[in-house]
Amino acid sequence: MTNHWIDIQNSDCILIMGSNAAENHPISFKYVTKAMEKGAPLINVDPRFTRTSAKADIYAALRSGTDIAFLGGMIKYILDNNLYNKEYTAAYTNASFLVDESFGFKDGLFSGYRKNSGDGPSMGGYDKSSWAFQMDDKGIPRMDKTLKDKHCVFQLMKKHYERYDIDTVVKVTGTAGKDLLKVYETYTATGKTGKAGTIMYAMGWTQHTVGTQMIRTMAMIQLLLGNMGVAGGGVNALRGESNVQGSTDHCLLWHIWPGYLKTARASNDTLEAYNKKYTPKSNDPLSANWWQNYPKYSVSLLKSFFGDKAIPENQFGYTWLPKVDDGAVYSWFDLFDAMYKGNLEGFFAWGQNPACSGSNASKIRKALEKLDWMVNVNIFDNETGSFWRGPGAEPSKIGTEVFMLPASVSVEKEGSITNSGRWMQWRYQGPKPLGNSRPDGDIIMELGHRIKEKYKASDGVFKHPILNLKWDYETNGAYDPHKAAKEINGYFVKDVTVKGKLCKKGTLVPSFAWLQADGSTSSGNWLYCNSYTEKGNMSARRSKKDAANNIGLYPEFAWCWPVNRRILYNRASVDPKGHPWDDKQWVIKFAGESKDGKYTSKKWLGDVPDGGWYPLENPDGTRRSDAKQPFIMRKHGFGQIFGPGRADGPFPEHYEPLECPVEKNYFSSRMVNPTAVVYSTKEDGHASCDPRFPFVGTTYRVSEHWQTGLMTRPQKWLMELQPNVFVEMSEELAKLRGIKNGERVLVSSARANLECTAIVTKRFKPFTIGYATVHQVGIPWHYGWRWPATGTEESANLLTPPAGDPNTRIPETKAFMVNVTKL
Q: What residues does the Molybdopterin dinucleotide-binding domain cover (predicted)?
């Protein structure tokens, strides 16, 4: 989230797409309700009429997987009706940047496309050289602030979305034209200065072969309307777990290290080469280019890993870290694909249930059979730990040795979580762990000690990374979360003078602005540097005092990365002179003194400013040379309407899901994202426009169960509320198939069959797509064979396809094709 939960109450309009927030994120909806009480309309766009829809002022239905068409139409509506925030767009976005004259787009493909001729899962990729910006003789992007040059981003965007007219969007999405216009008219009103609109989304957007670009499209809209950095604005992801944000920050994903540093590649053979590769350079003196500090963060991370053993002579231990092969991908899909092919020997399943949660779950279960060993770390046994005795499994033929390590539940351990709004909050231990279960921290600490002992006692291959790893996060023999939190914050590891102040060895670093690249500081995650300082544990604070602007920042309640900044890019909430766009709900404002029309002192009020420099202009309108552009994490300092870093194009484009009900893409001849990843083994079938599978399927959650049901299905009272995996369908489809409410039916895809209970409701309605009628059904994904004891209820992910987004490899579980037949 660029903003945070409480800030939603400051919105003048809330758009919820790809989420059923009222049911699945009720805390967020508390603040949606507060905004609505002040007059803000709520818009909900969803294939199904949900509990969120029931609370919305405007509801619009769309077919799963067509959100880019829907939002692309909104961009065209904004541009055609001159509704964009002109001053904000010209001043703070790259709309004015001139793109290389060789850049082009034709029939669904951007310039530089190359189809994959190998046997990998990627369908293809782009040579992005033509996507570059034109540079002046100083190496700064050329701009046209009038936005009229045919090569500027604004004009290229206008040309790209001229195809997204109302009639075509209706044909693709199935949304009624009057509903489209009502949504467009209502939400784009937030482009007026002093107004703010926010977007809330969840897995309904991310889990598509174009998921990243769905979010990009909305980010472009927010930039055009001036909704980034302001109170009540932003692009806000609703996480499915209380600590998804925290685990991602600390490198849950394979391609990053803590703090979103890049995973080292084989070609980055030295620390110097690594830092050079990932440290962007900008020649613009007005660009903060904050990632220029990359070496400070990478070296401090290495000092945190290896402590005193990390010295300049050994590149601070950089050579001890594993390097991933250039061009190789180690995502969830790729790991289980390798496991299925017999290329992995062992697997730690830590706090997860991939036998139910993974797309194309049958393949995952088959893959587990190919292992020598598996360790299941969880609070209960689950379908993953017991895969060898599940439906269709033959235990006598499975050689995988399975170990179960019982873990404590969240209330039995102390530590922090970082919620969707980036707020790190400390939680204390309640009851002691039951039985022989142990907190995750204790399990991982003992495992590390055992591995170290093994290496000490033998001549193990490449032992230096293990023996030199700093591993001292215990007190009285037990894992100490405070020691870990302090290590994550970072220390001065020797006496050093920074910012004119002597910083003593062993003291905690006050913020990441003090980190150094010479090995004098450590930090396990630079983004969290400032979270546990000499003043104490910032995340444990509980003051209910608000900031002076009284917009719900609560700066002394918990702690928020970075440096307790509650709203990211908040320097875009003021005009170039430092005055808030919104005088009533201002986030920050400049209060420095001025003389003769020039600012003479620096002072910002409100939230922690996104950089404490002077505003871009003096009160008299003259430009300052000591200011910085507001989007400090971007190399050039501007919000990116044109995004040249994405794998599938600098502008989002509508493509159909891998499995779709139509034979024609009304925007181009390209059906599927030409850079999507599609896995092909005998377990990886897929079918599009196949009469055997005529209906669109999607997965979703219900409030009675949690994730794969591991913590809820064993509870009798929750199973009483939602006892069966069900397939929800429209009355029209039920009539077509002769199905009555409560009957058992078979849902089938190209991969598997799933027995379900039919739930016939008015919440789904047939779509008219082009000239065809398309039905959609939905299945909750909380079930598996382990509970209930009947063994009749199984995972919806047996049905989902083997395709993913090219940027993230996230699976396309929200749009696929199925059949529904009466049993």
A: 698-816
Using DSSP, state whether 613 is helix, strand or coil.
coil
Structure token pair of residue 439: 């907190």
What residue ranges do the domains of the chain occupy?
6-110+144-242, 259-268+288-324+480-539, 332-470, 677-822
DSSP 546: P
In this structure, are strands 532-533 and 536-537 parallel, antiparallel, or unpaired? antiparallel
pLDDT at residue 685 in the model: 74
d(CA 716, CA 701): 19
CATH architecture of 6-110+144-242: 3-Layer(aba) Sandwich (3.40)
| pLDDT by 10-residue block (mean), the chain, 823 residues | 97 97 94 98 98 98 98 98 97 98 98 88 95 97 97 98 98 98 98 96 96 97 98 94 90 94 97 98 97 98 98 97 94 95 97 96 96 97 96 96 96 96 96 95 97 90 94 96 98 95 97 97 98 98 95 98 98 97 96 96 96 96 96 97 96 97 95 93 76 97 94 94 97 98 97 97 96 96 91 94 94 97 95
Say which CATH architecture domain 332-470 belongs to: 3-Layer(aba) Sandwich (3.40)
Among candidate residues 770, 743, 767, 747, the one with its CA nearest the CA of residue 757: 743
Beta-carbon count within 10 A of 680 CB: 12
Contacts of residues 502-509 at CB distance under 8 Å and 24 or more positions apart, as own/partner, are 507/534, 508/532, 508/533, 508/534, 509/533
The sign of the CA dihedral 589, 590, 591, 595 is negative
Secondary structure of 614-662 in HEC code, one letter for each residue: ECCECCCCCECCCECCCCCCCCCCCECCCCCCCCCCCCCCCCECCCCCC
Say if CB 773 and CB 767 are below 8 A apart: yes
Q: Name 813's Cβ contacts closer than 8 Å, sequence gap at least 6.
A: 203, 207, 359, 698, 699, 781, 797, 800, 801
* Closest C-alpha among 521, 602, 610 to residue 563: 610
Distance CA 712, CA 781 (A): 13
Which whole-number Å values give the CA distances from 625 to 191, 364, 572, 615, 622, in the listed order?
A: 29, 57, 18, 10, 10
Angle (CA) 647-801-686 rounded to 5° is: 100
Residue 684, pLDDT score: 66
- What pLDDT was estimated at residue 119? 75
Question: Beta strands 726-730 and 373-378: pairing type?
Answer: unpaired
DSSP state of 427: E
The 8-class DSSP code of residue 681 comes to S
Token look-up 């890993």 returns: 305
The angle subtended at Cα 300 by Cα 295 and Cα 302, nearest 5°, is 100
Dist CA 57 CA 41 (whole Å):
6
Just give the CATH number of 677-822. Answer: 2.40.40.20
At 695, which helix (H) or strand (E)?
A: strand 695-700
Do residues 355 and 368 touch, judged by C-beta distance below 8 A?
Answer: yes
